[in-house]
Design brief:
Helices cover 40% and strands 17% of the residues. By secondary structure, it is of the alpha/beta class.
Length: 394
Amino acid sequence: MEERNSSRVFHCIPSLNPRHGGPSRTVVALTDALAQYPGFAICLLSQGAWEGPTIPSGEPDATRRVVTSRSRLALALGLPFRSGLLGAGSSARPALIHSHGVWHPVNHWAARAARAWGVPLIIHPRGMLEPWALSQKPVKKRLALRLFQRRDLDTARAFVASAEMEYEHLRRLGLRQPVAVIPNGVTLPATTPLAVVPAGRPGDREHVALFLSRLHPKKGVLELVRAWSQLALVGWGLLIAGPDEDGHGGEVMRLVGQLGLEAVIDYVGPVEGEPKAALYRQADLFVLPTFSENFGLVVAEALAAGVPVITTRGAPWADLETQGCGWWIETGVPPLVMALREAMALSDAERRVMGERGRAYVRRFDWDVIARQTLDLYRWLLGQGDRPDGVRLD
């Protein structure tokens, strides 16, 4: 229930469907964490297909309104969300609006409401203004900038960047508003999973490398399959997990067949909850050969599970090397082959030590820590506190 005298905050996101990747999960986790603190009444607003799945909330004090529709056109235009937003605002205006994402009409309606109601707007781009993202469908995005997106960006009182790299990209786009550098959080397992070698590995293989993310061209899954074909490994298998986006999973598995890798690469589809946690526990190595990430939630999840990580410089994880818990490499097949060979040449004990270093490092991404940083930003924007250390004005 909303407390009397609490400042009301609307969190707005186009979808809470688990198939839409990390933002759906992290926004739910963030609002759940924020709702546990006094002084702010958190309301999460979204839309979705009729009877479609949504990421569940585990926090009763986080108000949640997901307006559904059977009309694909209405959803594409953000009309169910607009109706829910105006309805929520008619009963009690928010003190500020925190909008997750750009380009989608849902984010546009959030910006319009902030202008109409005269309340601060925070835009959390979640990687959608990164160079790789801007290179996709560039004509549509240039049109959107002219029609509404530029004005919406200018409306923002502040931005939230998930890493230093995203902050720098926002500045290169000419966005001069304050930027709070606040990473995504991660739920930390209660125990160290690599202390015991798990049973029932896929295909009874001795060692398993795991890819777990959306099957999308930007995630580098095809590059991973090509790299795997060059390794000629004995006792290692590659497990691919995650939702198939726009048929890319079929393309990946066709390549697996063409390269004759069916015996050593498995695709298990989307996973959530305990099955997902079990995959991390089974893994000896986690690989995300992505072309672009503003954060890379699965990297943090793997580190929290005590698994060493290989990812690319398209993700903001330089600390994998400085903290001695993984490899941060250039994109492409040759660097990936080299990193995989190095990782797999280590003993189980050496990889376990790397995993423990990663687990210790990732504690800084606990959701309580992230929630407190976010609340400090809210208080500053509302004139209730000093500017937080993580807010950049330069």
